[in-house]
Amino acid sequence: MLLLKLIQSLIQTLHSEGTPGQVAAGLVLGSILGLTPLLSLHNVVVVGLIVILNVSIPGAMLGWALCIPAGFLLDPLFDAIGRGLLLGTPALRPLWTALYNAPVAPLSGFNNTVVLGSLVSSLALGVPLFLAARWGVTRYRATVAERLKRSALYAP
Amino acid sequence: MRVFRWKAIVPLLLLGAVGAGLWLVFADRIAKHTTESVGTTFVGARVEIDRLHLDVPHGRVEIRGLTVASPFEALQNLLQADLLVAEVEPLPLLEKKVVIDRLVATGLRFGTPRLTDGRTAEQSDGLKGQITKWGEQLRVPAVQLATGKISVAQLDPTQLHTPRRATALAGRADSARQIWEAGLTGLGTEAAIDSGARMVERLKGAKLTDVKLLGDARRTLEQLKRAQERVTALERSVTSGISALQADAAGLTDATQRDYAIARGLLKLPGLDAPDIGAALFGSAAVDRFQRALYWVQLGRRYMPPGLLPRATPGPRRIRRAGTTVHFPRVNEAPAFLLKAAELSLSVASRTYAARVSGVTSDPTLYGRPAQASGTAPGFRVAALLDHVRPTPRDTAAASLVGVALPSLPLPSLPMHLEPGAGTVGLSFAMQGDQVRARWTVTSDRVRWVRDSAGAGSAVGDLVWRTVSGIATLQMSASLAGTLDRPELAVSSNLDRAIAERLRTMAGAEVAAAERRMRAQVDSLADGPVNAVRAQIATLGGDVTKRLGAQRARLDEARRALEQRLPGLRLP
Predict the structure, then answer these.
(1) B401-404 contacts, C-beta under 8 A, 24 or more apart
(2) Using the beta-carbon criterion (under 8 Å), do A37 and B318 form an inter-chain contact?
(3) Which has the higher per-residue pLDDT, B266 or B339?
(4) How many CB atoms sit inside 10 A of residue B100's CB?
(5) Which residues in B have their CB inside 8 Å of a CB on A?
(6) A51, B404, B478, B568: least CB-packed within 10 angstroms?
(7) β-pairing, B337-348 with B324-327?
(8) Integer Rg of chain B from CA
(9) Nearest CB to A75; choose among B321, B324, B326
(10) Is B562 exposed, middle or buried (0-12, 13-18, 19+ CB in 10 A)?
(11) pLDDT higher than threshold 50 for residue B572
(12) What is the spatial distance between Cα B421 and Cα B447, in angstroms, rounded to a whole number?
């Protein structure tokens, strides 16, 4: 059932009125929610951006749903990346020390290896994911979506 | 296309307001859950709170019904508190730092019973496991008094000195043989003897005025003398070498004695000297006390480390991987946690006492002062100082209670336990770097001995029972000293001598038999290599000496023959 819901959500998103860029941006922001531990301060900002920016909210929901399992699977990698950044890169230590002793920043949990590793990874993946998603949505709408609309299965 | 969805501002603000409202409603629960979770991780046992209230406007936190389970006993609490009120500085909270100006705790009770096991497996980063391993090296094997049996551990042949030394000695004897063989070959005695014999033949028909022949004869005689000197030198070397090898062979007896001592150590029985008996009786209880003290000190060192280097701690528990949280302390900033002062009202043995704690912080170097605890009252004294300000941590703690009902002391492997009654108990523990020094004393003049029904009927148990049951006083002292890696435990009590004398009489025969068995086992492993090397040395000495003697005899003969011919020649 969950899989069917996901497929339904995917198709609805792809057929929504948003432009491919809006859908892709929504997917990217949603992927940050899915890849990083949800109860983190930066995700409040991400939710705010999803709501206030003119991005596809279904796209964001889809990105979130798709990336949650990926986040769990990639946690060991995120942990290693975060560890490398926090403990294995002396050049960054002044930055972490300044953030750690600044107001509010420590509340984000940036000094946790999984939080930092997953956030940096999701931000790094953001641009390629955006470009790939925009291209994919454009291609889908130009090819599959047109045929699907003409088929008897399609019920708008 | 518009970038912003302006009409979403209001719903977003509403969402924020709802979020803030939910936080206000659930803040107490979230804080309670977080405190319980952090406390449980810290202590290594369950921390439970009945109710926690955050009074944000006044910077106060109230905790009611705090229960901290014991990390050591299954059904016992470490402490319970009726009420804790903390005055928290609000600004550091924005940096996720907790600075408590003042904490007042009332109704503190220790060692209360609980219904469920509050210990958590391998919390506190496995510290408990490390402490348990540390304590195992101090455990004194209990005398198998109840059964009268003496168990013997497996003797490991590689631990024995004698076979190892005998093998090494055999190697040295072989090397010596090779050297001496080479020496014998290099003496050149055959050539000298042949020259002597030829010269004697030439001299038989020689003229008395043949100067050349006379010179040759004198040179041959010199050659024989030098060969004799070489033989003498080699003889000296062989004699001293054989003596050294024989001395080493004699030294194998000492090695065997040491091996006997190793084998005796495998008997699961301390010596029947008074101090060993004391260690067997009270060592286990003493180690338990010292382990607990060490556990808290090590926890303090783990969570209150000296220095300002980044420090990694386990991340928060969540569905996703917890990861590691790294702290980056900086000079002139607030520590991540600081309890400036706490006033405690506590109950011990049905009496109420007051105590004070100050300077408990996660970053002692930032705070610059050691953590201290103190409490004094008639018959009660406790003081502790955890100085982690300097690079080498220094932790000291001492407590004493006078005239309180002391808990019963089980005596390992004995069918009885000791009820010390009202007495005095003292515990001190000091650790500087990895040097540890501790002492636990128990004194009582109204001791009661209680026979356990499970061990009834044992002859040795009866003997010990008869020995101690008439003793009404107890003076026990256990001390620990050394490094953490090599601590040494010493226990003594007024019971030791009495029990030791009785035990020596009773168990002496059995111990002697067990020792005889162990000696036989050592002998069976050592005798073969020892006898072989002794025979090898004896053979070597005889053989080389005999061959040298033969060479010397032939040289002497050749020289004598030549000298007999020489006096007949007239020298020019």
Answers:
(1) B401/B348, B401/B349, B401/B425, B401/B426, B403/B379, B404/B348, B404/B349, B404/B351, B404/B379
(2) yes
(3) B339
(4) 19
(5) 1-5, 8-9, 11-12, 15, 94-97, 310, 312, 315-316, 318, 320-328, 330, 333
(6) B568
(7) unpaired
(8) 41
(9) B321
(10) buried
(11) no
(12) 6
Buried b / exposed e over A8-22, threshold 16 CB at 10 Å, is ebbeebbbbebbbbb
CB < 8 Å to A112, chain B = 315-316, 323-326
pTM beyond cutoff 0.80: no
pLDDT (tens digit, 9 = 90+) per residue, B68-120? 999 888 899 999 999 999 999 999 999 999 999 999 999 888 889 999 998 88
Record: contact B328-A100, CB cut-off 8 A: yes
Size of interface A-B (CB pairs under 8 A): 94
Which ipTM value was assigned to this complex? 0.88
How remote is the C-alpha of B403 from its chain's centroid? 35
Q: CA-based angle B109:B110:B111, to the nearest 5?
A: 135
Unique residue bearing structure tokens 């033989």? B231
Taking the mean position of all CA atoms in its chain, how far away is CA B289? 17
Across the interface, whether the CB atoms of B94 and A19 are under 8 A apart is answered no
- Which residues have CB under 8 Å from A65's CB, separation 6+? A6, A9, A30, A34
**Tokens 């999701």 — which residue?**
A122
Residue B356, H or E segment? strand B351-361
Residue B566 has pLDDT above 90, yes or no: no
Q: Residue B315 and residue B335: Cα distance in Å, rounded? A: 18
Minimal-distance CA residue of chain B relative to A75: B321
For residues B567 and B319, what is the distance between their CA atoms, to the nearest angstrom?
114
pLDDT of residue B349: 65
DSSP B438-477: EEEEEEESS-EEEE-GGGTT-HHHHHHHHHHTT---EEEE
Contact state of A106 with B97 under an 8 Å Cβ cutoff: yes
Which chain B residues touch A122 with a CB distance below 8 Å?
Answer: none
- Record the tokens describing residue B70, joined without a space: 């014991």
Comparing C-alpha atoms, which of B450, B437, B363, B352 is closest to residue B395? Answer: B437
Return d(Cα B505, Cα B139) in angstroms, integer.
25
- Which residue from B3, B12, B326 is facing A48, i.e. has the nearest CB? B12
Ramachandran bin of B386, using left for φ above 0, alpha for ψ from -120 to 50, beta for the remaining angles: beta
Instruction: State the amino acid at position A26 in one-letter form.
Output: G
Query: For residues B364 and B386, what is the distance between their CA atoms, to the nearest angstrom?
Result: 9
DSSP 8-state assignment for residue B126: G
State the Cα–Cα distance between residues B155 and B299, nearest whole angstrom.
39
Q: How many CA atoms lie within 13 A of B518 on its CB side?
A: 27
Residue B275 has pLDDT above 90, yes or no: no
- Quick: pLDDT tens for A8-59: 777 777 777 789 999 999 999 999 999 999 989 999 999 999 999 999 988 8
- Token pair 């005899």 is found at B553
Are the C-beta atoms of B408 and B418 separated by less than 8 Å?
yes
Q: How far apart are CA B95 and CA B72, in angstroms?
A: 35
Amino acid at B31: A
Q: What is the pLDDT of residue B328?
A: 94
Does A97 contact B328 at a Cβ distance shorter than 8 Å?
A: yes
